């Protein structure tokens, strides 16, 4: 570099600051020492990388398993809702069929039943007790 070039560079450093007239201080770069990685450190880095990979894969597998369980639960819930609907329909049919008017209508129309006349009615009471052994009395009435 010639003297004129140095003088020009010197003036440029003063022009930036105007009236302060202080030159730009050049920073001295410190050289960092080279990082030396030993075999033990390399082994630790590889082991840590493998461990992180295993951990990541296990997180993915557990997430997939949880998603599968959630899917199974949702399927069971939907099947349960269908079965509950069928149960409600069956309960409605049971109430409809066990209604006294329905039973009476079926007895009269399908089975041909009628209301009994006064002479056909038998009243049961406490004052009439069968004499002797009750089982023997029933047996006699059944076979005679």
Fold and architecture overview:
- The protein has helices at residues 3-15, 39-97, 100-109, 134-143.
- By secondary structure, the protein is an all-alpha fold.
- It is rod-shaped and about 150 Å long.
CA-based shape: rod-shaped
How many beta strands in the DSSP annotation?
0
Q: How much β-strand is present in the residues?
A: under 5%
Secondary structure: helix percent: 55-70%
* Low-confidence runs: none
Largest sheet: none
Computed over alpha carbons, the radius of gyration is 52 Å
Mean pLDDT: 84
Our measurement of the CA-to-CA distance between the termini, rounded to an integer number of angstroms, reads: 147 Å
Determine the number of helices (DSSP H or I, runs of at least 4 residues): 4
- The H/E string reads HHHH
Would you tell me the structural class of the helices and strands?
mainly alpha
Present the secondary structure layout.
Elements: H1 3-15, H2 39-97, H3 100-109, H4 134-143
Short synopsis of the structure:
With 144 residues, the protein is mostly helical. The chain has 4 helices and no strands.
What features would you highlight for this structure?
rod-shaped; 4 helices; mainly alpha; 144 residues
């Amino acid at each position: 570099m010639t003297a004129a070039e140095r003088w020009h560079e010197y003036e440029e450093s003063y022009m930036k600051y105007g009236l302060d007239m202080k030159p730009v201080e050049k920073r001295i770069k410190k050289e960092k020492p080279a990082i030396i990685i030993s075999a033990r450190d390399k082994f630790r880095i590889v082991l840590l990388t493998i461990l992180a990979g295993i951990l990541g894969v296990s997180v993915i597998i557990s997430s997939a398993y949880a998603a599968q369980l959630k899917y199974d639960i949702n399927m069971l819930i939907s099947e349960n809702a269908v079965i509950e609907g069928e149960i409600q329909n069956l309960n409605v049919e049971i109430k409809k069929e066990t209604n006294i008017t329905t039973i009476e209508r079926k007895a009269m129309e399908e089975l041909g039943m009628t209301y009994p006349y006064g002479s056909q009615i038998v009243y049961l009471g406490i004052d009439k007790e069968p004499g002797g052994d009750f089982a023997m009395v029933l047996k006699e009435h059944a076979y005679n």
